Amino acid sequence: MNLKPSFLIIGAQKAGTTALFSYLSRHSQVIPPLEKELDFFSCEGRYRRGLDYYHTFFPRAEAQLLDAVTFEASPDYLLKPQAAGRIFEYNPDIKLIVILRDPVKRAFSSWNMYVKCFDKNTNWFLDWMKRCDSAFDIGLLRRRKLSDFLDFEYVVREEIPFAERDELIEATLLLHGKYAEQLNRYLNYFDRNRLLVIEHEELRQHTIETLNVVTRFLGIRNHPWANENLAPVFEGDYQSEIPEAAKTMLSQYYLEYNNTLFKMIERRYDWV
């Protein structure tokens, strides 16, 4: 028998899931899976393989691990509409952690990552879609012109009408930041007390305090975080600033979404 996950980090993309996964994996009571991002509940190809396949990624339930817990971190769970219902069906009592980030900065970070992906493989996004679902109809996807993708302002301007209609475009940036809609899908299934929302800058600037909030939420024992090397684990080494025109467009685009989110979580973040 394998341990089953007692909690999931469900997103958002480029908001600190890698950092939180790394930190929690150092907790004496927590055993990480074989892979960080299993994408089981969001990826059709993996979901069709069933729960026995899913559970092979988790540690064996050995006698000496009676109080151990395991988990995974798949940022696509927050984005993909089908994930919430599937996770609830799997375990309605599972605990969920969401890390949110200023959606303007999150989009820019995602774009930087995508530029590197295109540089390595021009078809990386199509390969990803096919990996998730071999039956995916590529004809439904609006392709990007790669020479234009290097211009962040152009990319934002091109994608806004697609994002407003919730339509997919290659290497989508903006849909990931519509947090209120995404959280609402989970709240349609799960009690609010099963969901912990933390913020990227809180984790980054107040790491130990935030980790203590997480461990209390999970109901696991305290951990001497001060003895750990909690150096930043935030991916991305870009130095450029967000173009002002793109920042203005994105701030206006996300304004209503952010206001709805702040009412939903009864907290306001100091975002752009």
Using brief descriptors, characterize the structure shown.
272 residues
Provide an overview of this structure.
This protein is an alpha/beta fold and 272 residues long. The protein is 46% helix and 8% strand. Strands 2-3-1-4-5 form a five-stranded parallel sheet. The longest helix is centred in the C-terminal third of the chain and has 22 residues, at 244-265. The N and C termini lie far apart (48 Å).
Brief rundown of the structure:
The chain has 272 residues and is an alpha/beta fold. The chain has 13 helices and 5 strands.
> Which bin fits the share of residues in helices?
40-55%
Largest sheet: 5 strands, parallel
Oligomer: single chain
End-to-end gap: 48 Å
Q: Bin the strand percentage.
A: 5-15%
Q: So how many helices?
A: 13
Helix/strand class = alpha/beta
Rounded radius of gyration (Å): 19 Å
Task: Give a topology summary.
Layout: E1 7-11, H1 17-24, E2 30-31, H2 44-47, H3 51-55, E3 69-73, H4 76-79, H5 81-90, E4 95-100, H6 103-120, H7 124-132, H8 146-149, H9 152-164, H10 179-187, E5 195-199, H11 200-205, H12 207-218, H13 244-265
Parallel strand pairs: 1-3, 1-4, 2-3, 4-5
